[in-house]
Amino acid sequence: MKDQIMKTQDENIIGHYQDGGLLGRIDAGLRAAGVDPENVKAEDLTPVDEFHIGGREMTLRILSMMNINKGDQVLDIGCGIGGAARTLVSKTGCRVTGIDLTPEYIDVAKTLTAHCGMEGRLQFQVANACALSFEDETFDGAITLHVAMNIEDRVALYAETARVLKPGADFAIYDVMRTNDEALDYPAPWASSEKTSFLKTPQQMRALLNDAGFDLIREEDHGDTARAFFQNLSPDANKAPPPLGVHVVMGADAPLKIRNTMKNLMARRIAPVIMMARKR
Length: 280
Ligand SMILES: C[S@@+](CC[C@H](N)C(=O)[O-])C[C@H]1O[C@@H](n2cnc3c(N)ncnc32)[C@H](O)[C@@H]1O
Prior knowledge:
Number of domains: 1
CATH superfamily: Vaccinia Virus protein VP39
Shape: globular
CATH class: Alpha Beta
Order of helices and strands: HHHEHEHEEHEHEHHHE
Helix content: 25-40%
Bound molecules: S-adenosylmethionine
CATH topology: Rossmann fold
Structural class: alpha/beta
Radius of gyration: 18 Å
Largest sheet: 7 strands, mixed
CATH architecture: 3-Layer(aba) Sandwich
Strand order of the largest sheet: 3-2-1-4-5-7-6
């Protein structure tokens, strides 16, 4: 019974993210921006391939807090279409394995990585973050950017992450968290309804990480960054949207998701928070 409930929940999450048309929309956006989709540089994809608040800029901020070196093996949990993973590889010379529940995202991640000529340094696989297939203590570091909002079983998520990390490894979390008790407006970029949305408060997160064997070494609330980011994304009735942007990943109801997120942020119901943790 529990297995069936989890299977249905995973299907609902995949159904939220997957529509079968993402690569076509990205290729069309690249062409409109004057870029050959089969011969791109990782920077050409920057406007579209990092599906979290603040995009690449925030990935670079997170990376600057981590101890990641050339040759390190890093796990990107819920890697989406691989933008942050490619940024980590380009900036540090590390190797990244990205896992994600959504098959279409993993297909797009592999294709975009090949089109950037980076496939030797990244691997992608469809997997559930709560049941990883890697050996204990495989990775030198891990990131998870805007993923755990979909994950109800946080004890399993952080236990699995701790298991596959080496002692002393950095674990960077950047998630949308709950900052008051008001009901949220949906659809949001991460969930079509509250059925697949499991936000935690920063206090709950601190306890979860501690119990899983992590020390919290830094915490940053980025509510202000998020309000500015979504203000900038909000559709302007007088202008066509740019050819590439996270709206392309969000799909047909992107304007509604953006409007709802702005409402949730303005009412101080949610904020994206970075938590930098280290495995004891
Ligand atoms: C908002 S996207 C963020 C993607 C990526 N981290 C980024 O920043 O571009 C959330 C991602 O979490 C993935 N996800 C949700 N639940 C998951 C789970 N249980 N295991 C693995 N991935 C999951 C989704 O498939 C989706 O790709």
